[in-house]
Amino acid sequence: MTDTRPTTRTQPAARPQPTARTCPFDPPQEYRTLREEAPITPVTFPDGTNGWLVTRHADVRAVLSDQRFGANRRPARAAAVPAGTPLPPPPPGMFIMMDAPEHTRIRRLLTGQFTVRRMRQLAPAVERIVAEHLDAMASAEQPVDLVQAFALPIPSLVICELLGVPYEDRADFQRNSSTMLKLDASQEEVQQAHLAMNRHIHELVLAKRARPTDDILSGLVQEGSLTDEEMAGVGALLLLAGHETTANMIALGTMCLLGNPGQLAALRADASLWDNAVEELLRYLTIIQFGLRRVVREDLELDGHHIAAGTTVLASLTSGNRDAEQFAGDPDQLDVHRQYSPHLAFGHGAHQCIGQQLARVEMKAALSALLDRFPTLRLAVPADQVPMRDDMLIYGVHALPVTW
Hints:
By secondary structure, this protein is α+β, with helices and mostly antiparallel strands. The chain has helices spanning 30-37, 57-65, 102-111, 116-121, 123-138, 146-151, 153-163, 170-181, 187-210, 216-223, 228-258, 261-269, 274-285, 317-320, 356-373, and strands at 15-16, 40-44, 50-54, 69-70, 144-145, 292-296, 300-302, 305-307, 312-315, 378-379, 401-403.
């Protein structure tokens, strides 16, 4: 009779988590070697703590869909703490750090707000916003910073309209969200920025309780099952994620296409490729650059490795999206003709990004219209002088000077 019990391997020594890029569009080169030789390996994170790194597409999906890997975890910049120290509860409304049933309770209230149908119905409004910003760019003095003139205001305007947040407040929430995403920000700085965003949304919640309008915050107020603190947390999270991620995909996607003239020519020759191109850019660039952290909730075996309860596991989305076992052809090349295969840019499992359909609508509208309006669009500085967001949890560019 064959013994089917898992065999625990000898644990290799922890290695530093790969973080250094040699190409602005590629993850660290070490990921390729890890996928082939040590796809599940112990690492030391930049904050000095130890855990495990998962790099293959199939394993990343398995971790993110397994409820034994909890979403509540210490922040990526947290100082080392003694083993076995209990995790603090997540802040109210921060459902991306919650597990069922609390995560399910809050997410279910938002699912109807972000349906494919509703996001597609938003397309004309998004296209109008895009056109207005292209008109402003056309009359501006060149070179233009694409981030400030185009990539950042479009998703900021859209998420403000959806949530019911005044767009004139954008300077405050953009500054606070930037602080929360900086790798070198202190815990105190991050906490203060988080509290400031929550206070602002809490004030809006109170105002909408007195005078509701047609937006997500008003809908949550009228639904009535969340506390004011939970609604403030949900609103702050959606506001941060709703503009930071898409803004960086628009700017970095533009830079990437300008650096791949053959792919850009294919899109200009056949507009029907844009849906596919959006998926390929999401896969190829994967701006959640260090992956998603999970904490093991019980002792378990993962591909023969024993992982103890309380251990941090980092699921690398960037590495999984370059896995040749999942993506035909050379996954390290951008190919707008690539046959679609499920990617990990929006995560996977119960916590898969709730706003992914909105991001797709915004990316397609913005990128296709930008490159159509300015057929001679080009970088105004050498590519190696573009300031990259290596210092942020969400990758992209700090600025993108362009001309035409």
